[in-house]
């Protein structure tokens, strides 16, 4: 493996860490409704547990209400039960074959909890990025040890790796700060 391949790999893996953070942050509740909030819910469907999105259409009715429309009539009660029993603290209401999931307003205490959760997700992403930096630096040192790269190349590569790391950590900070603003906005 060459230094260029190590850097390319590092960038791709760090981008994946950022994508994972975005996905995790989308699940952190703000005061507004978001269909991604229900992605983690699984429903029993003919004996097996499947994601809610595979048995129902999930969309927004308005800023504070998610609508869930099961594709089969007999799934309504199971979907409603799964949403109610999830750890999201939601209370769905059935209206014929449409299930409305209103978002309860968040208390100040709950908002603070959610910002802590967002910061924690950001910290986990930073740890992942730093671990990738360490692995890349070790791979470069291994190349120097095997005499496949010079020490000057090692210094340049480590500087580039640090720049890439700094760029991704700044992006993580920006994502977490934006999420905190979103959570604290009333």
Task: Give the secondary structure arrangement, pairings included.
Elements: H1 3-26, E1 42-45, E2 48-51, E3 56-62, E4 65-70, H2 76-85, E5 93-95, E6 98-102, H3 108-145, H4 151-184
Antiparallel strand pairs: 1-2, 3-4, 4-6, 5-6
Helix pairs in contact: 1-3, 1-4, 3-4
GO molecular function, one term: ribosomal large subunit binding
Family: Belongs to the RRF family.
Subcellular location: Cytoplasm
Description:
By secondary structure, the protein is of the alpha+beta class. The chain has 2 domains: 3-27 and 107-184, Topoisomerase I, Chain A, domain 4 (Orthogonal Bundle); 35-102, Gyrase A, domain 2. It has 4 helices and 6 strands. It has a 4-stranded antiparallel beta sheet with strand order 3-4-6-5, covered by helices on one side. The chain has a two-stranded antiparallel ribbon with strand order 1-2. The termini are far apart.
Give a short synopsis of this structure.
With 186 residues, this protein is α+β, with helices and mostly antiparallel strands. The protein is built from 4 helices and 6 strands.
- N-C termini distance: 51 Å
CATH architecture group name of the largest domain: Orthogonal Bundle
Order of helices and strands: HEEEEHEEHH
Which homologous superfamily in CATH is the superfamily of the largest domain? Ribosome-recycling factor
- Order of strands side by side in the largest beta sheet? 3-4-6-5
Question: How many domain units?
Answer: 2
CATH class (first level) name of the largest domain: Mainly Alpha
Write down the Rg. Answer: 22 Å
Number of helices: 4
- Specify the overall morphology: elongated
Helix content: 55-70%
The overall pLDDT average reads 87
* CATH topology term of the largest domain: Topoisomerase I, Chain A, domain 4
**What does the largest sheet look like?**
4 strands, antiparallel
Unreliable spans are none
Count of DSSP E strands?
6
Roughly what fraction of the amino acids lie in strands? 15-25%
- Structural class, please? alpha+beta
InterPro entries: Ribosome_recyc_fac, Ribosome_recyc_fac_dom, RRF_sf
GO molecular function: ribosomal large subunit binding
Domain Ribosome recycling factor: 21-184
GO biological process, one term: cytoplasmic translational termination
